[in-house]
């Protein structure tokens, strides 16, 4: 079985590309790295794109981009998909380049496109420099924070994430009767979390991105007060991944968790069960409205 090594990029459908650009650059602090028709690519480190917005009336996740380090991993993944009768497309050439990759395997699961990409583009000619005063984002080989998904069937999704994408289960958390499961593919505590919801308003519940310092996070909170970047969950510290974070509403409706201080896991860290409120402190309101 192949194991992806990080959550590399997210593709989001967005109605108002200009409003999203203002939010992403002046609010979050990302940089536009590429424009391509009705598509805008944003970087937060050496990678050409961590978030890609595509003009669309359907404001949800369009694709979740995972990566592998070797092309042979894609061939092995395809062999597994064939043996299990799972449909896929092997994307190369110009089509792969729209995702800044040499080649990728595209799989539709539970109404969401997952892309496993190989050979992703970096930008070394121009070092990343945020348009706002921050030290930077904690990305690199840890990948793009995490995505929290609302899935139609917990067990089927669990199987896809562990047996097809090769994640490890980090933990099960119960907040009241609601179960959240966390999965890791890098040292980051989780790159994907799932909650069962058969008919959600959108499949992505939130996307998390981490800053390098607590001051970066505090300055983002200051910027939120002056921008169309409404805070929907006030600052707090989570159980499970220990991040200090607050949540803002992006112009496309998708919640973004701006964070600092996420927990890193050892390779052999055991799976944990947590029965908690979801936060050590703070995050007092709004979690139910994500
Ligand atoms: Fe989160």
What keyword list fits this structure?
single chain, 290 residues, 2,3-Dihydroxybiphenyl 1,2-Dioxygenase, domain 1, 2 domains, eight-stranded mixed beta sheet, binds fe (ii) ion
Structural description of this entry:
The protein is α+β, with helices and mostly antiparallel strands. The protein is 18% helix and 40% strand. It contains 5 helices and 18 strands. The protein has helices spanning 17-28, 71-84, 93-97, 154-164, 214-224; strands at residues 6-14, 31-36, 39-43, 51-55, 61-67, 89-92, 101-109, 112-120, 146-151, 168-175, 178-184, 192-196, 204-210, 231-238, 244-249, 255-260, 272-275, 279-282. Strand 11 (178-184) and strand 12 (192-196) form a beta hairpin. The relative contact order is 0.17. Bound molecules: fe (ii) ion. Fe (ii) ion is lined by residues 146, 148, 206, 208, 257.
CA radius of gyration is: 18 Å
In total, how many beta strands?
18
Q: What average pLDDT do the residues reach?
A: 96
Distance between the termini: 34 Å
The H/E string reads EHEEEEHEHEEEHEEEEHEEEEE
Largest sheet: 10 strands, mixed
Q: List low-pLDDT spans.
A: none
Which ligands appear in the coordinates? fe (ii) ion
What's the overall geometry? globular
CATH architectural category of the largest domain: Roll
Which helices and strands appear, and what pairs or packs with what?
Blueprint lengths: L5 E9 L2 H12 L2 E6 L2 E5 L7 E5 L5 E7 L3 H14 L4 E4 H5 L3 E9 L2 E9 L25 E6 L2 H11 L3 E8 L2 E7 L7 E5 L7 E7 L3 H11 L6 E8 L5 E6 L5 E6 L11 E4 L3 E4 L8
Parallel strand pairs: 1-4, 5-8, 9-12, 10-17, 13-16
Antiparallel strand pairs: 1-5, 2-3, 3-4, 6-7, 7-8, 9-13, 10-11, 11-12, 14-15, 14-18, 15-16
Bound molecules: fe (ii) ion (FE2).
